[in-house]
Specification:
The chain is α+β, with helices and mostly antiparallel strands. The chain contains three helices and 15 strands. Helix 1 packs antiparallel against helix 3.
Length: 244
């Protein structure tokens, strides 16, 4: 009888662990690669991010790029070539920070951007062995010198939602400033120096791209059931150990 009860507890633990870990997974899920729409880009100052080709409501235009495949409930999948995307300027709305108007049931809310790096002494030469920097303390942008220019990255993360659940999205927006050092960009942002073709009056403009993973996250109720199942398995193991 005791042996049968142990087997039942074991089965229950396995069911909780297996079934509820599956139930814990929510949609959306996949890869989102994007770029600015044709003729667009982004303008950055010390305190603002303005995504270009404004489409109203403080938003700019984005397009899903090669490699994009986001599946979700209520439509989709989101694939490359969708040029109806919108992205909110910052400061601005964090809800529906990114969305695609022909996929109304897929929402990308922003939770945070950055962080940048502590170093604010930006390299004045193009040398890939030199340290990355941020323009100023607290800036979310990371400027990395390369042998041909400066690579700029902005990390971002948030919540992706559809009609049945939510997932986490995270990754980076990136751009390149060929032939420009990090120190030049820093000086342009902080002191308004001009970099022909890129920066003037404290604002720098360039094209950009972004790459983000959308990953499933466990729901709180399901986490509790998983822990219950694991606890049951641990309990069985302890009983067996104590009887030896």
């Amino acid at each position: 009888m005791r042996s049968l009860k142990k087997q039942l507890y074991l089965v229950a633990g396995i069911v909780c662990f297996g079934v509820f870990t599956g139930a814990a997974s929510a949609t959306p899920v996949g890869i989102l690669n994007l770029t600015n729409c044709t003729g667009g880009g982004v303008t950055v100052t010390a305190t603002t991010i303005d995504w270009l080709l404004p489409v109203g409501g403080g938003t700019g235009c984005i397009a899903s790029d090669t490699g994009t495949n986001v599946t979700f409930t209520g439509g989709g999948p989101l694939l490359p070539g969708d040029t109806t995307g919108l992205i909110h300027d910052l400061p601005g709305s964090l809800t529906d920070f990114m969305l695609f108007t022909d996929q109304p049931n897929l929402h990308f809310d922003l939770v945070s951007i950055g962080p940048g790096v502590v170093n604010t002494v930006c390299a004045a030469t193009l040398n890939q062995n030199l340290a990355s920097c941020s323009v100023a303390a607290g800036s979310a942008f990371i400027l990395t010198p390369t042998s041909t220019g400066t690579a700029v990255a902005l990390a971002a993360n948030g919540i992706a939602r559809d009609t049945t659940g939510s997932s986490a999205w995270l990754g980076n927006y990136t751009t390149q400033f060929p032939g420009i050092t990090p120190a030049q960009i820093q000086d342009a942002i902080l002191h308004g120096t001009t970099i022909p073709g890129f920066c003037s009056a404290g604002a720098c403009t360039d094209t950009y791209s972004g790459s983000f993973s959308v990953t499933m996250t466990p729901e709180p109720a399901s986490i509790s059931m998983v822990l219950f199942g694991v606890a049951g398995l641990i309990g069985i193991g302890r009983k067996r150990f104590n009887k030896k």
